[in-house]
Specification:
The protein has about 350 residues and is α/β, with parallel strands linked by helices. It has two domains: about 150 residues, Rossmann fold (3-Layer(aba) Sandwich); about 140 residues, Rossmann fold, CATH 3.40.50. About 35% of the residues lie in helices and about 20% in strands. The chain contains 13 helices and 16 strands. The strands form five sheets. The chain has a five-stranded parallel beta sheet with strand order 5-4-3-6-7, sandwiched between helices. A five-stranded mixed beta sheet has the order 10-8-12-13-16, with helices on both faces. The chain has a two-stranded antiparallel sheet with strand order 1-2. Helix 5 packs antiparallel against helix 6. The longest helix has 22 residues. The two termini are about 25 Å apart.
Length: about 350
Amino acid sequence: MMGSKYHDWGWRSALLCAAVSLVLSVLLSGCQGRRQGPSPPPSPRGGRFPVTMKDAQGVRVHVERRPERIVSLAPTVTEILYAIGVGGRVAAAADPADYPPEASKLPRVGGWFTPSAEKTLAAEPDLVIGSRGNPPEFLASLRKAGCAVFTIDPKTLDDISSAIRSIGAITGADAGAARVVEAMKRRLASVASKVEGVPQEKRPTAFMIVGLNPIWTAGSGTFQDEAIRAAGGRNIAAELEGFRPFSTESLLAADPEFVLLPVTPGDRDGMKRTALSDPVLKRLSAVREGRLVLLEANPIMRPGPRIAEAIEAMARVFYPSHLGGSPARAVPGSPGRDR
């Protein structure tokens, strides 16, 4: 199921905790051994040290000097670090680290949900930045080893902006973070200005698929729901909260004008075929009439800077005449509405 991994601090086990503790006992100096020498000068992008901030888990994180070796434990974090201009200080990252393209060359510390303590500590980080999906026991063990571990957990569009600013502050890249957030706000404001005259009752209805067999969707309290509304649409699943299964009866009764399907580049055609062959989806007018919209998955599923790109893509499909788009395009380089 596609959606549950975005909204569950789970993915943990006693075995993982035990393994982490064993490795940490051997590599305890991994985060402590680099605390020597004078503090580097303040970053030209802004930021003064030391810095103490509370993270998404309520932990007060203290960073004495500007971090020069950062480990990213989530793809969203990696994207943010590069966007704010700190990519050159990322020493290692968790899979998948696939955006921007240069991030693919980073050393790996394991998977987003299954990071390796040994590899993380071997990167000799000054700062480790994690996100929802990382095992909490793993993060706690890194802290016990002396690592500065900062986490984010954005659930709304405002949270995304706040997370970017927080990462900017903790890394000494305040100016870069502010630039990224302001660019996002300008793009979203442009979309809003072009659809604001459309009455709510006339805005197109939409349904986002985040899992099949059974069908799961994104309801209220998710940034995907907010993104649909920011693009000028109405999410038919807004009465649900979080990621939830959506009943066949409710979906057929609502018969949304657009069905939104996040797809990955490597499996775009396969995911499309699966959706088109689903016995429930085939009965929807949106699918029968070519309004199955393929969205690039990462911008809409990762709470990072590219969420503005995803909102623009949906708005172009919802309102091609308003935004100068084409009914047949959702994402640049990827067909949006397939017939």
